[in-house]
Design a protein that fits this description.
Elements lengths: L1 H10 L14 H23 L4 H23 L9 H21 L2
Helix pairs in contact: 2-3, 2-4, 3-4
Length: about 110
């Protein structure tokens, strides 16, 4: 129930402006790599805090995605470059990859 509610809130936020960007580019690779690293790091930190394997995976993934969403929210301010769903998609792809790589490294 929380995920659909969060998604609906993101769709209805009314960002001040949207970015007009492409799917490829150096910044997309930066979004992907940073999100993958943050996801893996969040997994590791949560595991060292004594969280279960599933809970640490969820923590790492959501940590990364929430930072990516915060960055896009920052970009959506009037002086920013605009909210980019493409950047956000690369953030989610990177977080998923970081989660998968961390899980494979710990089996």
């Amino acid at each position: 129930m929380r995920i659909p509610l969060l998604f609906a809130l993101l769709l209805l936020t009314g960002c001040s402006h949207m970015a007009n960007d492409r799917w490829q580019g150096q910044d997309k690779a930066q979004h992907f790599i940073a999100s993958a690293m943050l996801s893996a790091a969040g997994n590791e930190v949560a595991q060292h805090q004594g969280y279960s394997r599933d809970r640490s995976a969820a923590f790492g993934f959501m940590f990364s995605v929430s930072l990516g969403a915060s960055k896009e929210l920052w970009d959506s301010r009037p002086a920013g470059s605009g909210w980019s769903w493409k950047d956000f998609a690369w953030n989610v792809a990177g977080a998923t990859t970081g989660y998968a790589v961390w899980q494979m490294a710990h089996y």
